[in-house]
Amino acid sequence: MAAKSRSARYYASNPKARAKKKKYDTAYHSTPERRKYRSKLNKANRKAGTYGNGDGKDMSHTKKGKLVKESASKNRARNGAGGRAKRK
């Protein structure tokens, strides 16, 4: 099992902060814009045959705006997602 990230350790030891974050995340991800965005990506995943099959692939946005298959870990690590840059 991998070690917990700094933020995961923080929220594990601060229940009030975790509850506040959960409330914010729930509100944010239920907005019409997020729901539309998520449904678009889910539709693309289904069309590409990667939705729910356990292959570890995601649909990723290219710089030109196209959607391409990419490993989920690479896609989500780009541009300092999660607060820290993975490469310079």
Query: Into how many domains do the coordinates divide?
Result: 1
Structural class: mainly alpha
User: What is the averaged pLDDT score?
Assistant: 86
Largest sheet: 2 strands, antiparallel
Estimated helix fraction: 40-55%
State Rg.
Answer: 16 Å
Strand order of the largest sheet: 1-2
How much of the sequence lies in strands comes to: 5-15%
Cα shape: globular
Number of beta-strand segments: 2
Euclidean distance between termini CA atoms: 27 Å
Could you name the ranges where pLDDT drops below 50 across 5 or more consecutive residues? none
Layout: helices, strands, pairs:
Layout: H1 6-13, H2 15-29, H3 32-48, E1 57-61, E2 67-71, H4 72-77
Antiparallel strand pairs: 1-2
Explain what the structure shows.
With 88 residues, this protein is mainly alpha-helical. It has one domain (15-82). Helix content is 52%, strand content 11%. The chain has a two-stranded antiparallel sheet. Strand 1 (57-61) and strand 2 (67-71) form a beta hairpin. It is globular and about 40 Å long.
At a glance:
With 88 residues, the chain is mainly α.
Features of the shown structure:
two-stranded antiparallel ribbon; 88 residues; single chain; mainly alpha
